[in-house]
Protein p34
Amino acid sequence: MLLSSRSSTEKLALGSIVVGISVLGLKALAWWLTGSIALLSDALESTVNVATAVAALIAIRVAAKPADKDHPYGHHKAEFFSAVLEGVMIIVAALLILREAWDGFQNPPVLAAPGAGLLVNVAASALNGWWCWVLIARGRALRSPALVADGHHLLTDVISSVGVVLGVTLAVLTGWAVLDPALAALVALNILWSGWKVMTRSLSGLMDEAVAEETLEDIRATISDAAAGAIEAHDLRTRHAGPRTFIDFHLVVDGHTTVEAAHTICDRIEQALKKKLPDAQITIHVEPEHKAKHSGVVVV
């Protein structure tokens, strides 16, 4: 199951590269046909899409490596580094677009063949829209931060592309050439915000942030239901790294419980947790009754 998940994640990452190159080609053609700075900004963002898709594929392959002597907890955080890199590259692209927009304000361009260029850009945006939906849906299912970050970035690209198409159309209809660089500047600001959100989401994983509250409640309930024979579970801690969830806690049992009986309880809890979170890595510290804190998870 885990190998199948890794294979699916890698295929999606490869698909992102193919789609990214196709969209880049279409948007570059749209810019070449029109000379629009706003469409150039759209194309520049697509170069980032290709670069980050390559980075995501490399990170996913590194994250899939098994634990070793130097990395006893595995390589799962590699995907978060990819997502942070993506955020940085988005910000760099935004700054490049702002520079082009400033030049455009000083010398507003005359748009050539706007109809053909806009149609090509719409086709590129439709392809991007379909693929971002695939990445977000499948990335969440596979619990891959790199794929989800890539999908959210593409969604921002789609939204900004729709705005660009509408704005360039308005510039052509009204004859206000200054609208073209103005739109490019708005696209850049939107991209900056997108890059910041991608980076903050990824940094939370690098900082060993706990799992979402909803998931934490599921973990507590599962421990409570599966720990028959124990007294309580306390000091529950969680963190996530890519598809892997780390869970550790102290399990209090009656002082007369044998090692074998305590081990059986732990096995039962682990099996129940892995039904909920197949990629979970669980550590349970068994303690005698006098160590009870009368807090945490009460066993049903």
About this structure: The domain at 213-298 is CATH 3.30.70.1350 (Alpha-Beta Plaits). The chain has two domains: 2-206, 213-298. Residues 37 and 100 are 7 Å apart (CA to CA).
